[in-house]
Design goal:
Chain lengths: ~550, ~200
C-alpha cells in the first residue's frame, strides 16, 4: 500500500521536472551565451574591476576559479574566528580553529559538511554573511566550470573558454537569486521561519520550559537546495520542522535540489547545437536517479534488521509527517546530487537502505549530480565511454566532433581516479595510523561493529564527492576528522576542476572532425546504455571491497 | 615582479571586491528582503507558528513537546509524543536524531523498553504497538504521531479525564490530517494541538 504512495510521489516529481527542465535549460543556455550585459551588471563589473568582454584561456579561467575560492575560504574563516564581535552572535564564542578551517572549506567547495551543531556554534551573522553567501557563489562556480567544459566541446580552434567573472555573476544574478527569492517565499508560506528572534523560552501546557529557536532560515533554505549545497541552518537539517514543516514542503525541497542538475543537459544540448545529445545525458541521469530512489524505498519499506523488525518498521530517525517513501526519495535525491541535506537520519536507515545513498555518492554524483559538477562529471564519463567503445568495436573515439586523443583520455582517466583515491586513502589512514585509529574508535565512531566502519567510509565518500550528508552519529569535530575531511573536500573539489578545465582547453583548440561511418553516434539509446554501464561498472570495480566490509556485511549477517 | 605573480595579485584583488559585493547584496540585501516580506505578509509563519494561550506562547504547532511530569513520567491525561533524542527530550535548542543503526544493541533495548512502557500505560499487548511510538524521530522535535498511535491512546486519555472514548476519539479524528494532495507524506495527528483541544484551550 505504502509503496503506491511512494510511486505516486515519484510520479509527481517526474512530471514537474519534465515540465520545467526545457524552459529552465533553455534559459540557462541564454544566460551563458548572451552577448548582452545588463546595466546593473556593467556597473558591477566596473566596481569589481573586470572587462566582461575579455576571453580567458583555460589557465586564466582556472586561476580565477582558484583565487576566488581561496578568497572565499579566507573570508569565511575570518568571519568565524571573529564571531564574538559580530552582531547577532547569540552570545556564541569564536568558532575554534580546526572547526573553522573545516567549515570554511566545506562551504566554499559546495560540500556543506557540518562537523558542528549549528544551534550551538553559529550566530546569525556568520550564517547569513558567510555560509549563505558561499551557498550562492560555490554553486555559481560549479555552473561556470560546467559551462566552460561545454564551450570546450562547442568551440572550434580557439584558445579560450569564456570569462569566469561573467559566468559567475550571471549564474548568481540571472539564475540563482531570482529562483531563490521565489522558493524562499514558497517555503516561508509553508511554515519555514524567517526572523532574528534568537531562542524563545516558552512554558508548555505540561508545565515545562521549552526553547523555540529562530533565525533567517527560509532565505538560506532556498539556496541550500537550489545550489545543491545542503548545509542545514539547524543540526538536523531538513528533518527540522522549521526547515521543512510539512510533507508538501519536503517534496518541493526535492524539486529544488533536482531542478537545476536535471535542466543542465538541455542547456548542454542547446550550447553544442544538438538537443538530442542533451537528452542522452538526461536519460542516463534519470535512469540512475530512479534506480537509486526505487532501491532506497524498497529497502526502507522492507525494514530489514533487528531494530526495525522489532519496532515494526524502519521509522527510527524518520519524521512522522514524511513517512518512509518520502524519506527515501529525499535520501536518494540528496546523494544523487551533491546536496547532502537530509530529511531523515541516514545512520539509522537499514543496512541496504543506507548503502544506496553511499553508492549514489560513489557514482561520482552524476544522478543527476550537483549544480554544474553533475554535468561536468557525466561529460567526463561520456568521454571515457566513447573511448571504451573505440576499444571494443573499433570506432574512432570522437565525441561531439572532437577527437578523444591521448591527452584527453589521460585527463578523463585521472578525473575518475581522483575521488576514489581520496575516499579509500582517507578511510584507510583513519584505521592504519595507530594514534588516529584509537581516537576514531573511541571518540568518533558512534555505532559499534561494521556499522562504525560504514560511518567512516560514508564521511570520506561524502567529503571527497562534496556531498555533505553523513552517517551523523560519527563525531567529526576532532582534530583528525576536521583536518582529513577538510583536505578531502579541498582535493575532491579542485583537482577534478583542474582536470576538467584542462580538458576543456584542449578540446576548444581542436577543429571539428566530420562524422564518418566509423563515428559512434552519441545521440542514440545504445550509447546511453553504454554510458550507464560505464558509470556503474567503474564504481562497482572501485568500491565493491569496501562496501563488502561495511553495509553488505551488516545487511547479510 | 614576474608577470604571473602580478596577474595573480590582480586576480586576487578582483576576487576580494567580488566577494564583498556578493556578501553585501546576497548576505544582507536578499536576507533583508525575505525577512521584510515575511514580517509584513506572513508574520505567523516567519515567527515560528507559535500557539498562544491567554496571550502567552505555550509552544509552536510545528515543534513537538513532552507531556510528562518533572520526572519524565507520562501524564496519562495527555496524548504522548514520540520518543525524542533532542537533548533531554524535545529540546528546541538541540535538535537531534539518535543516529543509532539497525543492529545497535542500545536501540534494540530501547525499543523493547518503550514497548513495555506503552503496554503498561495503555494496557495493550506489546507486539501491536505502531512503529512511530517506539522510535525516535530524525529531528527529536517531531510534532506528530500516527493516527494509529493516537487511537491506541484514546481509552487511557478518556479514562484519565473522565470523558467518553467516543468524545476523545472524535477529537482525534478532527485532528487527523491526511496526506498532502492525497499522496504526499503520511497521515498524522498534531499532538500539541490535540492536547490543547482536550484542555478546551484551543488557541
Amino acid at each position: 500500500m505504502e509503496v503506491w504512495f511512494g510511486i505516486a510521489q515519484v510520479a509527481i516529481l517526474v512530471v514537474v521536472l519534465a515540465l520545467v527542465h526545457r524552459p529552465l535549460g533553455d534559459w540557462m543556455a541564454r544566460v551563458f551565451t548572451s552577448a548582452h550585459d545588463t546595466r546593473v551588471e556593467r556597473g558591477l563589473y566596473r566596481v569589481v574591476g573586470v572587462d566582461p568582454r575579455a576571453e580567458q584561456t583555460w589557465t586564466v579561467y582556472l586561476r580565477s576559479v582558484l583565487v576566488f575560492s581561496a578568497v572565499g575560504v579566507l573570508a569565511l574563516y575570518l568571519l568565524q574566528r571573529t564571531q564574538q564581535f559580530l552582531p547577532y552572535a547569540l552570545g556564541l564564542p569564536a568558532v575554534p580553529e580546526g572547526l573553522a578551517f573545516n567549515t570554511a572549506i566545506s562551504f566554499v567547495t559546495n560540500t556543506n559538511w557540518q562537523s558542528y551543531s549549528p544551534e550551538l556554534t553559529m550566530g546569525y551573522t556568520v550564517q547569513l554573511a558567510g555560509l549563505m553567501v558561499q551557498n550562492f557563489v560555490s554553486a555559481a562556480v560549479g555552473l561556470a566550470v560546467a559551462v566552460a567544459l561545454v564551450r570546450g566541446f562547442a568551440r572550434r580552434r580557439t584558445g579560450t573558454l569564456g570569462n569566469f567573472w561573467v559566468d559567475v555573476n550571471r549564474a548568481v544574478w540571472r539564475l540563482l537569486l531570482p529562483l531563490s527569492i521565489v522558493s524562499a517565499l514558497v517555503l516561508l508560506a509553508g511554515g519555514v521561519v524567517q526572523n532574528f528572534a534568537g531562542f524563545t523560552e516558552v512554558t508548555t501546557i505540561a508545565g515545562q520550559t521549552q526553547t523555540i529557536p529562530g533565525g533567517p532560515v527560509a532565505s538560506q533554505e532556498a539556496i541550500k537546495l537550489l545550489g545543491t549545497n545542503g548545509g542545514g541552518f539547524y543540526n538536523v537539517n531538513s528533518a527540522h520542522p522549521f526547515e521543512d514543516p510539512t510533507a508538501w514542503t519536503s517534496l518541493v525541497e526535492v524539486v529544488l535540489l533536482l531542478v537545476i542538475p536535471f535542466s543542465l543537459p538541455r542547456t548542454f544540448g542547446r550550447m553544442v547545437g544538438d538537443v538530442r545529445q542533451g537528452y542522452v545525458i538526461l536519460g542516463v541521469m534519470g535512469v540512475l536517479w530512479i534506480a537509486g530512489v526505487a532501491a532506497t524505498m524498497a529497502f526502507e519499506l522492507q525494514g530489514a534488521g533487528t531494530a526495525p523488525e522489532l519496532a515494526g518498521g524502519a521509522l527510527e530517525g524518520k519524521e512522522a509527517r514524511f513517512g518512509i517513501p518520502l524519506s527515501a526519495i529525499f535520501a536518494a535525491s540528496t546523494t544523487g546530487t551533491s546536496t547532502g541535506a537530509v530529511n531523515a537520519m541516514h545512520d539509522s536507515f537499514t543496512a541496504f537502505g543506507g548503502m544506496v545513498p553511499l553508492i549514489n555518492m560513489m557514482l561520482g554524483e552524476v544522478a543527476p549530480g550537483g549544480v554544474g559538477s553533475g554535468l561536468y562529471g557525466i561529460l567526463v564519463l561520456a568521454v571515457i565511454a566513447v573511448f571504451i567503445a573505440g576499444l571494443l568495436v573499433g570506432r574512432t573515439p570522437e565525441y561531439l566532433g572532437k577527437k578523444i586523443g591521448p591527452r584527453e583520455i589521460k585527463l578523463a582517466s585521472l578525473y575518475i581516479l581522483v575521488t576514489p583515491a581520496i575516499v579509500l586513502a582517507g578511510t584507510a589512514l583513519s584505521f592504519a595510523i595507530p594514534g588516529v585509529r584509537a581516537d576514531v574508535e573511541s571518540t568518533s565512531i558512534w555505532n559499534p561493529g561494521v556499522h562504525g566502519l560504514s560511518e567512516v567510509v560514508y564521511a570520506f565518500t561524502s567529503a571527497a564527492n562534496n556531498n555533505g550528508s553523513a552517517f551523523a552519529g560519527l563525531t567529526a569535530n576532532t582534530p583528525w576528522f576536521n583536518t582529513a575531511l577538510g583536505v578531502a573536500m579541498l582535493l575532491g573539489r579542485f583537482l577534478p576542476i583542474v582536470l576538467v578545465l584542462a580538458l576543456a582547453g584542449s578540446l576548444a583548440k581542436q577543429d571539428a572532425v566530420p562524422a564518418t561511418a566509423g563515428t559512434l553516434p552519441t545521440h542514440r539509446p545504445l550509447y546511453a546504455g553504454l554510458l550507464t554501464g560505464v558509470a556503474v561498472i567503474v564504481t562497482a570495480l572501485t568500491y565493491f571491497p569496501v562496501l563488502a566490509l561495511g553495509p553488505l556485511a551488516e545487511g547479510l549477517s | 615582479m614576474p608577470s604571473n605573480v602580478r596577474s595573480t595579485a590582480r586576480t586576487a584583488w578582483v576576487a576580494v571586491r567580488a566577494t564583498a559585493v556578493f556578501t553585501l547584496v546576497l548576505g544582507l540585501g536578499y536576507t533583508g528582503l525575505i525577512t521584510g516580506v515575511g514580517a509584513l505578509a506572513l508574520p505567523a509563519q516567519a515567527n515560528g507558528s507559535l500557539i498562544e494561550v491567554d496571550g502567552e506562547p505555550v509552544g509552536s504547532s510545528l515543534i513537538g513537546q513532552s507531556f510528562t511530569d518533572a520526572d519524565g513520567a507520562a501524564l496519562p491525561e495527555y496524548f504522548q509524543s514520540r520518543p525524542s533524542a533532542a537533548g533531554d527530550g524535545y529540546d528546541g535548542g538541540a535538535s537531534s536524531g539518535s543516529n543509532l543503526g539497525p543492529e545497535n544493541e542500545d536501540l534494540i533495548a530501547a525499543i523493547g523498553d518503550r514497548q513495555a512502557a506503552i503496554s503498561e500505560l495503555d494496557g495493550v499487548p506489546a507486539d501491536g504497538i505502531p512503529a512511530d511510538a517506539v522510535t525516535a524521530s530524525g529531528s527529536g522535535l517531531d510534532p506528530h504521531i500516527s493516527p494509529e498511535y493516537a487511537r491506541l491512546q484514546v481509552p487511557r486519555v478518556a479514562a484519565a479525564r473522565g470523558m467518553s472514548e467516543d468524545e476523545v476519539g472524535r477529537l482525534v479524528d478532527e485532528h487527523t490530517v491526511g496526506r498532502d494532495l492525497g499522496v504526499i507524506g503520511s497521515p498524522v495527528v498534531n499532538v500539541l494541538e490535540l492536547n490543547l483541544a482536550l484542555d478546551g484551550l484551543e488557541g
